[in-house]
Amino acid sequence: MTFRRRYRYAGFRVLSPNHLGEREVRDVIQRSIVELLGAQGLSRIEPRIIEYDAERSVGIIRCKHLYLPLLRASLASIATIGEKPAAFLVLKVSGSLRALRS
Amino acid sequence: MRRFTDLHLRFQGDLSELKEMLRVSSELGYSTLAISFSQNMKEEIKQARIICSDLGVDLATRVDLEPKNEGELLKALKELRYRFEIIAVKCLTKGVARQAAKDRRIDVLNFPIDPAQRERAYFDHQEAVLASGALAALEINASTILGEGPFNRARLLATMRKEIAEGRRMGVPFILSSGAENLYGLRSPRDLASLLTLMDVDWESALDAVSEEPLKIVERNREKLKAEYISPGVRVVEGDQK
User: Fold this and answer.
1) Are strands A58-64 and A84-85 parallel, antiparallel or unpaired?
2) Which of A61, A72, A93 to mutate to test the interface with B (most CBs of B within 10 A)?
3) Chain B interface, mutation test: which of A89, A92, A93, A94, most B Cβ atoms within 10 Å?
4) Pairing mode, if any, of strands B229-231 and B174-177?
5) A63 Cβ under 8 Å from any chain B Cβ
6) CA-based end-to-end distance of chain A
7) In this structure, are residues B221 and B5 in contact, taking their beta carbons and an 8 Å threshold?
8) Is B132 on the interface with A (CB under 8 A)?
9) Angular region, B233: left φ>0, alpha ψ -120 to 50, beta rest
10) Strand ranges (E), chain B
11) Which of A5, B15, B148, B225 maximizes the CB count within 10 A of its CB?
12) Are A15 and B184 an interchain contact pair (Cβ–Cβ within 8 Å)?
């Protein structure tokens, strides 16, 4: 039996009138998870931004595989960043980075 | 394979913005989209049909009614039922809610999010009993959840959780729509479904709420709007069709 942690990788796109940096995107996602699910939710999901292209506003985020719906719900519930409207759209989900990038 | 459907995009009068919304929705995987128009927008509906056919998306026309009383609702239904594929009613009073729940011409029931209005009309047990005997589905708009701050959102989620549970107990279908007014209100179908998991809905039922259930409403109404339709199970058959 293996105790290897299983993750899901989600490719996402940010719609916002402003260009956001990786740190801003990470903060917004973490804040959204805490607002929706609390600190316990954040600790369970273990979100981590693997990469983010600020030019194209697309990135890849990793989470624990059991908590993917909660990550999706947290991303979906982001409606504003600062005072500006925004949306996080999950485009594709995969169990491996290689498959996601292909 | 699931055919994802968003039954509620709101048209705000800007065709270029609508075109962009439809393009992004199509990229997100929706195959059927319903746009809410006001009653006299014939030209806009025509334009929207052209945009959708270019994108390869199926368009359903929708009208949202906000009647003040039962009489107003019945009058509007008589006028509009044969002009729009989806009829949604925002139930602002208990009388309207009761009439809407039992009327088989209504497809979608909407309830206000304002707490003061919620005290007057909400999806209670009696409403669910009436709706179970008719055809209306309970609609949850993601835009109402997203537009609120954390405390109001928590209260809203609790109310919606109760309403969905009541509806499921009585066999009333529920659907989840984006309710998007602009690009920023759009979400992918699975993202929308994930919001339902916050209301204790299992993943498969949540996916049904953004695919099978709304699609059933569109198909049922298209069947009804055909010239040969008489009543449920009865239609005109001619010549070789016999």
Assistant:
1) unpaired
2) A72
3) A89
4) unpaired
5) no
6) 30
7) no
8) no
9) left
10) 4-10, 30-37, 58-65, 86-90, 108-110, 137-141, 174-177, 229-231, 234-235
11) B148
12) yes
Q: Are B210 and B176 in contact, with CB atoms under 8 Å apart?
A: yes
Rounded Cα gap, residues A42 and B167, in angstroms: 31
Compute the nearest-CA separation of B179 from chain A (Å).
13
Residue the block writes with tokens 């334009």? B47
Task: Indicate the pairing of strand A7-15 with strand A87-94.
Answer: antiparallel
- Residue B242, pLDDT > 70, answer no
pLDDT digits (tens, 9 = 90+) for B198-216: 999 999 999 999 999 999 9
Task: Kindly determine whether residue B146 and residue A36, on different chains, have CB atoms separated by under 8 Å.
Answer: no
CA B19/CA B182 separation, integer angstroms: 10
User: Among residues B88, B98, B94, B91, which one has the least CA distance to residue B179?
Assistant: B88
For residue B50, name the pLDDT band (cuts at 50, 70, 90): very high
Question: Testing the interface with B: which of A58, A77, A92 to mutate, by most B Cβ within 10 A?
Answer: A77
What residue of B is the nearest CA neighbor of A71? B194
- Tell me the helix, strand and coil percentages in chain A, rounded to 5: 40, 35, 25
